[in-house]
Amino acid sequence: MTITTSERGRSPGSEAGGSPAAGDEARTRWWRRPWVGPLCLVVAVFLAMGVPRYLTFDPADSKIPPDPQYPWHYPVLVVHVLCGTVAIVTCCLQVWPALRHRHPAVHRLSGRLYVVAGVLPGGLSGLAVAYASPSGLSMQMSTMTTSVLWIGTAVAGLRMARQGRIADHRRWMVRSFALTMSIVVSRVLGVVYDHTILPPPGASADIPTLIAWGQERAGLASWPGWIVPLLIAEWWLVERAASARHRARKARRG
Ligand code: HEM
Q1: Mind listing the pLDDT tens digit for each residue in 189-238?
Q2: Which of 16, 160, 215, 251 can pair with 169 through a Cys bridge, CB separation 3.0 to 4.6 Å?
Q3: 1 in any annotated domain
Q4: How far is the centre of ligand 1, averaged over its atoms, from the C-alpha of 182 (Å)?
Q5: Which range of residues forms the domain containing residue 209?
Q6: Using CA positions, which residue lies closest to atom 33 of ligand 1?
Q7: Ligand 1 site-directed mutation target among 129, 140, 216, most atoms within 8 Å of CB
Q8: Which residue, by CA, sits nearest to atom 6 of ligand 1?
């Protein structure tokens, strides 16, 4: 997974490693990369706020009320949260350019963990918890779609890496990165809605009103939560390729 400024000038064919740009990239100090630190900070805050309640393994602590109709709901939700944590932490390691270039063995190990211990079990359990979710049909459809895309993009990225198609591997992993971060984006959107278009009902609201509000909020946060990051990733990939072609044309003319 690569999101670097120094790679913008590289043609896709030059991404097979060992290029001079890789050296430039490794030398660029972390504080010149404004996105790595903030990304890790946002992910750390998200994990600190969302995950600990599932480490007690007590269904009473769950934010999502387990459905008694499905006895597997709570255990699968816990598996999902644990695998999601592995995915989002290893994802941050994967996009850290210095780690990629100075410690390629760590990059490979954490990349395998990302797919095998994070996205695959996290996506499959995501499908199951979406099926049993009390958060409404819109949110269920959205998260089922995300689960399939999440697994598909990561498996495609892993396949490309194994075939040595490094430029394609990076493209798929940029998409996978965007989908992993969708969980954070949708949570942020939920908070924005609370303070703008969808304030929580008052304390006197009855249960059906609260459920209807919760389902509307979950659906409204879920769809743009993954579509917007994926579109940004797609734009970034197109832009980077166009910029590389432009530089190559200029170099030929020069
Ligand atoms: C991007 C692919 C993902 C999909 C499709 C997905 C799907 C889901 C679904 C369907 C639920 C149940 C929500 C409900 O019933 O209302 C859920 C809950 C949850 N997921 Fe994910 N998830 C994904 C990624 C992640 C990641 C990377 C994490 C990182 C830790 C994570 C952490 C959680 C947590 C903590 C919950 C419990 C809900 C809460 O306490 O607010 N998920 N997820």
Answers
A1: 999 999 999 999 988 999 999 999 999 999 999 999 999 999 999 999 99
A2: 160
A3: no
A4: 10
A5: 6-253
A6: 81
A7: 129
A8: 126
